[in-house]
Design goal:
- Helices cover about 60% and strands about 5% of the residues.
- The strands form five sheets. It has a five-stranded parallel β-sheet with strand order 8-9-10-7-11, sandwiched between helices.
- Strand 15 and strand 16 form a beta hairpin.
- The chain is globular and about 105 Å long.
- The two termini are about 65 Å apart.
Length: about 1000
């Protein structure tokens, strides 16, 4: 029975208004745009979908600035509805786990496959019934009301699919002896789709078989006039052929008896013996005596693993009706393209009874097979003697097409180089299919459907390792096995090489092999076994690159960052951005570079990066001079640092610096870049980027960072920069590095550690007369640290000092922001009048600058003052106003305001509203990655749940426990309050502060 009838699990309907059901209960799938994101994941169920791809799916070329935040919010909401096991985050993207038959499109495809099998057995009436059942799955316009370019494409595809199913159904009904009954429906459909030639063919055939030859010929004449008038083209070969056969009263067109079995799929005596066979010219009822049925496929890989979605995509492409389908599989070297193609080809043997051809076209190894050579091989495979093979390539191709006309043959072209090599090898008549593998994304192939093959998901890679090595051995060292998979980048070829080494050495442990792979420098050397080698596979791809592509491939691997934007690519390559982006895209097309998760960003597979970093030894003419190589790499890094530095204003904290956060964007990448440059072995002037530029860049990005996820990468970079500054005696760089470390330590709650770094930074500023903005930032950061430590008098002194410096400099925005911090310190002293006056000064500057962010912060400060004065309803009003002014994509600021709003609502006795605000705060701070803020929000949620009747004490205690687990290790005073609420078994106060991993002990 259909999976839709089975209890338990999820079911989705998209062939009409989108619906989701669990056990018959409809799910709330959210707004139309949120449904669009769900559909983008559903149609790729079982495959990772990057955030960049989802943005492109929902908005196309004009996404809003908030696109990433909206995606995260939609995913968070859908995860609540579908369950955390159904929708997971994976490697910078998202993965939806869904049963294909739980989706009505999956059930449609299953019924189509069943109908094809029935028709191949001559059971046309049964096939028609199955196809009618498939048509019943449509409930109106597919995915009606859901916006977005991806959904529009899917809608068009499934509207087209419905017509294809209907055509197949009507064809099967005709072959089952029901031509007369189909005439009315075909007439209406032909009027609705007047340019669809296949419907015209079916109507002509139904009329002819109903004894209405004249009507059938009039239908042709009308179609001929329509096509010539509206499109300026003549009817296609299928329609013309059928017209001629009706004029000649071809006996093979006679109506089959209702109970008579149809001819096998290999017979081609009728125009409808196979789906869309009318496009083929008439041939004899049986093959000529010399015709052979070659079966040239190499053996399939016995331990082929996973790839469910890709296998189904390729199968569906090869079954595309109405033309010669071409399925093209592309991917990097070693990713398993040939293994997948052979797996699919062997599985479709019954659908291609007239032969299966195979040829390695050697497209990646420098000696590609010429099309005329391939044609000669194929002709000989069908029994054509060598002396009968035409010498002219065009005649040779025509002979090949004629030989395959009307037959069902699968052609597997492995390792193709380009479309020019493949195009002459595509048969001309329907019934055949072509499967192509290539490292490049071959364009300009007629009727092609493309499947990009990524590396194996981690679980599938572990399964592959297990199948070769043995379950017991892997289970005994599962952590080491997973690390092994990580080190080989989940590349199937690398996994097979390592598995073969282990299988041949039963005395080796997995951990021993992991140790051998631990050094990046030697990892590729270890990925060899017999005639298999990962770097040899990569070398084939590198040898296909031209000089400019090879330079780009080498240089883009120099920055040790997760990915690069188009602008960053341009900086590294020292090329204009359009030219640099074109180079990057050409490397993507060659599978030597990948498109990253974010829009317009590029990345390497780990092993390809390692290969790129050592590829200089393979350059034509021999290895390059190492001094030249080092200089070229250092210059590339300097250009990239300069690109980021240009986006960070000389005065950190200014509007330009905040704007830079949108261009710098990825804190992980900038942190990694600064760390790499600070640790370069040769820091000679003119070779390595200067420490002053690195320090300014790092501080500017730290001040602009709006996510808790920035803490770790920036901390590692600051620590590396501090070591380099101490070694070179650069006091300015040292002060900036210590300021960054202090701010980051305070951010994670390690206030006492932060204080030590900030005091050193202040002393450096005063002792060495360092730049005034740096001094102001140090004063303000110290004051914020004193607030955390409960020392309000020192906090007021610090903020006042910072205010004085900003006034002296004349930076009004920085002054307004610092005034708000000073107001908070005054309030902690109980000086609410002074606090209010300071906030008013800040508001005035904010109005003058038309700065909504400043205004939101000022409103929030007024809320804090009102809250402390016991005016809780007034505090709620101020904080709601602040929330309305805050960018919803600024998850940190939104979460912190929601947290304070929850506190004021709770104090006002509005418990349910407090719980809602606290829960929203938890969501926002979770999305942001603000670990400490999330702990505080969980504590507030627990308080609100425990307060209002009837309350939820069990959930409240769970929130407190989770909050305590977050806050106690960082020494937060809030943990001390929570401990008694949790009862016995919990510490009475905060644990000893944990030293962050990004600082030395």
């Amino acid at each position: 029975m259909d999976r839709e009838a089975r209890p338990g699990g999820l079911r989705f309907e998209v062939l009409g208004p989108v619906r989701g059901l669990r056990d018959g209960v409809e799910l709330a799938l959210g707004s139309p745009q949120q449904q669009g994101l769900l559909l983008a994941l559903l149609f790729r169920a079982g495959r990772q979908v990057s955030g960049a791809q989802l943005i492109d799916d929902l908005w196309g070329e004009d996404p809003p600035a908030s696109a990433h935040g909206v995606i995260r919010t939609y995913v968070h909401r859908l995860r609540r509805v579908l369950g955390p096991d159904a929708l997971t985050s994976l490697g910078g993207g998202y993965l939806l786990v869904a049963d294909p038959e739980g989706l009505d499109t999956g059930r449609c495809e299953a019924r189509q496959a069943r109908a094809r099998a029935l028709r191949a057995e001559g059971r046309h009436a049964e096939a028609a019934a199955v196809l009618r059942a498939a048509l019943e799955l449509w409930r109106g316009e597919p995915m009606s009301g859901v916006p977005g370019p991806y959904v529009r494409r899917q809608r068009r595809e499934w509207e087209e699919r419905r017509l294809a199913v209907l055509e197949a159904c009507l064809e099967a009904e005709g072959e089952g002896g029901r031509s007369a009954e189909s005439v009315a429906e075909l007439t209406a459909l032909s009027e609705e789709h007047p340019l669809r030639e296949r419907l015209v063919e079916l109507l002509m055939l139904a009329l002819y078989r109903s004894g209405r030859q004249a009507d059938a010929l009039e239908v042709y004449r009308a179609a001929d006039r329509r096509l010539r008038t509206e499109l300026g083209v003549a009817p296609g070969p299928g329609l013309r052929d059928l017209h001629g056969r009706i004029l000649a009263a071809d006996e093979t067109l006679a109506a089959p008896a209702p109970a008579a079995p149809a001819a096998p799929a290999s017979a081609v005596s009728s125009v409808s013996s196979a789906t869309s066979a009318s496009a083929a010219p008439p041939v004899a009822a049986g093959p000529p005596a010399a015709f052979l049925r070659p079966d040239q496929l190499p053996a399939a890989v016995a331990d082929f693993t996973g790839r469910t979605a890709e296998v189904e995509a390729v199968r569906a492409a090869l079954r595309e009706p109405g033309r010669v389908p071409v399925a093209a599989v592309a991917g990097m070297g070693g990713v398993g393209k040939t293994a997948l193609a052979l797996h699919v080809a062997h599985g479709l043997a019954d659908e291609f009874p007239d032969g299966r051809l195979y040829l390695d076209l050697h497209g990646a190894d420098g000696r590609p097979t010429r099309p005329e050579e391939a044609l000669a091989v194929f002709l000989r495979s069908f029994g054509v003697p060598g002396e009968s093979i035409p010498a002219d390539p065009a005649e040779r191709a025509a002979r090949y097409r004629s030989l395959l006309a009307g037959r069902r043959v699968l052609v597997l072209l492995d390792n193709a180089r380009d479309a020019e090599q493949v195009r002459p090898l595509i048969p001309g008549g329907a019934g055949c299919a072509v499967l192509v593998t290539s490292r490049t994304r071959i364009g300009a192939l007629p009727n092609a459907r493309f499947t990009e093959l990524p590396v194996l998901p981690a679980e599938e890679a572990v399964t592959l390792l297990t199948r070769v090595v043995g379950a017991g051995r892997v289970a005994a060292e599962e952590p080491a096995a997973r690390e092994l998979i990580r080190l080989c980048g989940q590349l199937p070829l690398a996994v097979r090489i390592l598995a073969a080494r282990l299988a041949c050495r039963p005395g080796w442990s997995v951990a021993r092999l992991v140790e051998q792979l631990g050094g990046e420098r030697y990892r590729l050397d270890a990925l060899r076994s017999g005639d298999l080698a990962v770097d040899s596979s990569f070398r084939f791809g590198f040898d296909l690159l031209d000089a400019e592509q090879a330079r780009a491939f080498r240089l883009l691997a120099v920055p040790e960052v997760p990915d690069l934007s188009a602008a960053e690519v341009a900086a590294v390559l020292d090329r204009p951005e359009p030219a640099a982006e074109a180079l990057a895209e050409s490397l993507v097309d060659c599978s030597m570079l990948e498109v990253a998760a974010s829009p317009d960003r590029y990345r390497y597979h780990d092993l390809l990066r390692a290969f790129a970093q050592r590829v200089d030894r393979f350059c034509p003419g021999g290895p390059r001079d190492q001094t030249e190589v080092d200089g070229e790499r250092a210059a590339a890094l300097a250009r990239l640092v300069g690109h980021h530095h240009a986006g960070v204003a000389a005065a950190p904290g200014s509007p330009a610096a905040r704007a830079a956060s949108r261009t710098v964007g990825d804190y992980v990448a900038v942190g990694a870049l600064v760390r790499q440059c600070a640790e370069l072995p040769d820091r000679s002037p003119g070779v390595a980027p200067g420490l002053d530029r690195l320090a300014e860049l790092l501080l500017g990005v730290c001040l602009s960072a709006d996510s808790g996820r920035a803490t770790r990468p920036l901390g590692h970079a600051a620590n590396a920069l501090l070591r380099a500054a101490l070694e070179e005696g650069d006091r300015t760089a040292e002060a900036r590095a210590r300021l960054v470390l202090g701010r980051l330590l305070a951010e994670v709650g390690s206030a006492s550690s932060a204080l030590a770094e900030l005091l050193r930074a202040r002393d450096l500023c005063t002792a060495h007369a360092l730049p005034q903005p740096l001094l102001a930032l140090t004063h303000g950061s110290l004051a914020a640290c004193f607030v955390q430590l409960g020392r309000p008098d020192e906090a007021v002194a610090g903020f006042s000092a910072a205010v004085a410096v900003w006034q002296r400099i004349g930076d009004r925005r920085a002054l307004a922001a610092e005034l708000l911090e000073l107001a908070g310190a005054f309030a902690r002293q109980g000086r609410f009048g002074a606090a209010g006056r300071v906030v008013d000064q800040s508001l005035l500057i904010g109005h003058d600058l038309a700065d909504h962010e400043l205004e939101a912060r000022a409103r929030d400060s007024l809320g804090s003052i009102a809250h402390d004065l016991g005016r809780h309803d007034q505090a709620v009003a101020h904080r709601r106003a602040a929330l309305a002014l805050t960018d919803p994509d600024d998850h940190r600021r939104t979460g912190r305001i929601l947290l304070r709003l929850a506190e004021s609502l709770r104090a006002a006795g509005r418990g349910p509203e407090a719980a809602e605000a606290a829960e929203r705060a938890v969501d926002a701070l979770t999305l942001d990655g603000d670990h400490r803020g999330r702990g505080l929000a969980l504590a507030a949620l627990g308080d609100a749940l425990a307060d209002h009747p009837p309350g939820d004490p069990e959930r409240a205690r769970a929130c407190w426990a989770e909050a305590h687990g977050i806050l106690a290790p960082i020494g937060s005073p809030e943990a001390e309050r929570l401990a008694p609420l949790l009862g016995a078994g919990h510490p009475a106060g905060p644990a000893r502060q944990r030293w962050p991993s990004w600082l030395p002990a």
